[in-house]
Amino acid sequence: MADTAASRSRARGDASFGDLISLALQDASRLVRAEMDLAKVELREDGKRLGIAGLLIGMAAFAGCLVLMLLCFALAYGLNTLGVPLWASFLIVAGLCVLLAAVAILIVRQKVQRVSGLSKTRQTVQEDLALLRRDDDGPARLTAGTG
User: Fold this and answer.
1) What 3 state SS string does the chain have?
2) pLDDT digits (tens, 9 = 90+) for 41-88
């Protein structure tokens, strides 16, 4: 750490070309490590969201296998008792099962749409590349976006 501070103080004054290259490599190395850390954090968050969505799918499938079949038979025979023909009772129950499946799919779709896809990492990498290229608009965009 002390070498870095000394190198930075020399960079302002009469630093050699080698010192400047060393500083640039250190900064680039720190930048790459920071970007990797950000990517890991975002991937963990997305993994948690996808894990929850997968867990909900599994729970829905398990509960559906155990309970839905019995309830469907009970409902179909209950409708038959009320005077609806048996074939129509089972057709009505099948329609209700399709409706339940559609609701489950909509919930999963909503969970999956919240996945960010490393958007923060992509944005910071683009900003870093703009700084490395020394674009005229690069630093102005960064200070305007953070202030």
Assistant:
1) CHHHHHHHHHHHCCCCHHHHHHHHHHHHHHHHHHHHHHHHHHHHHHHHHHHHHHHHHHHHHHHHHHHHHHHHHHHHHHHHHCCCCHHHHHHHHHHHHHHHHHHHHHHHHHHHHCCCCCHHHHHHHHHHHHHHHCCCCHHHHHHHHHC
2) 999 999 999 999 999 999 988 988 888 789 899 999 999 999 999 999
